[in-house]
Amino acid sequence: MSRFLARRLLLSIPILLGVSIVVFITIKIIPGDPVASMLGPTSTPQARAALNARLGLDQPLPVQYFRWLIAMLQGDLGNSIAQQRPVLGLVTSAFVNTLWLTAFAAVLAIVLGLVLGAVSALRRGKIAATISNALALFSISTPQYTIGLLLIILLANGTGWFPVSGMYSAVGGGTWGDLFWHLVLPGVTAALVPAGIIARMFRSTVLDVMSLEFIDSYRARGLSERRILWHAFHNTTPTLLTVAGLQVGYLLGGVVFVETVFSWPGLGQLVFDSISRRDLAVIQAGVMIAAFAFVLINVIVDLLHSVIDPRVRA
Length: 314
Known about the structure:
This protein is an all-alpha fold. The chain has helices at residues 2-29, 34-39, 45-55, 61-73, 87-122, 127-141, 144-157, 176-210, 213-220, 225-235, 237-254, 256-261, 267-277, 280-308. The radius of gyration is 24 Å and the shape is globular.
């Protein structure tokens, strides 16, 4: 197991290096001058040249990249231009908020996806399967921001049952119950697309497993349908882990629309605001943290997969 883990971690290093190169080059080709944004429009050429030299922006791009990479590995992500604060503290607090939303949406997506997929696979030809398939297709096809706006109109502004935005109430907030109440609408919105994908994949996997010969042999030996279903679901676990892990990674990097619609103070909202402010250091750090989290989730999924199916370790 330790050799398998070491091999997966080593394979993750070039992926993260490739992401860092893409992020660095993307930031460099964005039009505009970050030094001018820091000093303001009335700055003198001498002041801009001095700041360029202090930040190392007068060096060749490879030198700039390696200096930025080494600083990032040491925990120095620079300072925010807009907020004049260390970037590390900003992205860390925002990432924790995103983790709350991602965890809630992931649990909801997995449970809903399993239920819809199981009903679609085991109740074929019945109205329950038709409804489950329709719900899965609807959740995949409908844009998240549209669902979010509809939920705000119907369940927040229309009835007042749920809060419209933020993580806590301005008055009397800060409790776990208040956090959960604020999580419901953005969590449901973020969970719909992953739930639909998990449902479709789980349905297909269950149907494939139920058509295998060992299922017929179990029936011939007189096993109950409940035990047969248990064995069938056990054989779908590797595929389910892979799909669920990919969807959790998607949630970490793909909830920017949800965080924007519901004003959730997460990493996506922070990066979105930083793009409009041209806060390049925050953009770089936010994208790198999201990429690192996605790779880490895939490593964890591979480890779980290897525990369930020892053949993977070979």
